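Need residues for this backbone.
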């Protein structure tokens, strides 16, 4: 009986300890890539919904990533890669990107993506793309030969620190 009372008191005491994870404001980064042969990929899409407008254009989402509390100098590693046996050889089909965040003053993202959908691999550079407004998707790259485009959006919100 005493052990039971001590256990209950211990659990009650733990519940009274303040949570050290503090919610504060921060910036979230979102990356989305789409596949669509012959799709006219726009330079920007306003609002947080990118999938709806892209589906209407005939594109299919192939990768979506969300990263909370982005800081200057962060590098997002994003990959959607399928290994497939093609005639007794393994071939890659997908996307592998490294996106670097410059988040001091004016925001910009840059980096590179390896695109391999048609069995051919192509390295696509992402030049420094200004990301000034939140809730606007900015096109980072497009590979017209393989019908792939990647986008980035930032938004402010609550994060745990």
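Answer:
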């Amino acid at each position: 009986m005493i052990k039971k009372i001590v256990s209950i008191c211990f659990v009650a005491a733990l519940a009274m300890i303040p949570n050290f994870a503090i919610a504060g404001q921060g910036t979230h980064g979102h990356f989305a890539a789409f596949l669509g042969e012959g799709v006219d990929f726009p330079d920007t899409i306003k609002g947080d919904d990118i999938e709806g407008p892209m589906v209407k254009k005939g594109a299919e989402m192939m990768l979506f990533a969300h990263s909370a509390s982005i800081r200057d100098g962060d590098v997002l590693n994003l990959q959607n890669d399928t290994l497939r046996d093609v005639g007794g050889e393994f071939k890659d089909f997908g996307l592998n990107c490294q996106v670097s965040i410059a988040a001091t003053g004016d925001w910009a993202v840059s980096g590179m993506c390896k695109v391999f959908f048609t069995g051919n691999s192509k390295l696509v550079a992402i030049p420094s793309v200004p990301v000034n407004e939140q809730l606007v998707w900015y096109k980072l790259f497009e590979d017209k030969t393989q019908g792939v485009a990647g986008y980035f959006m930032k938004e402010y919100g609550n994060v745990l620190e």
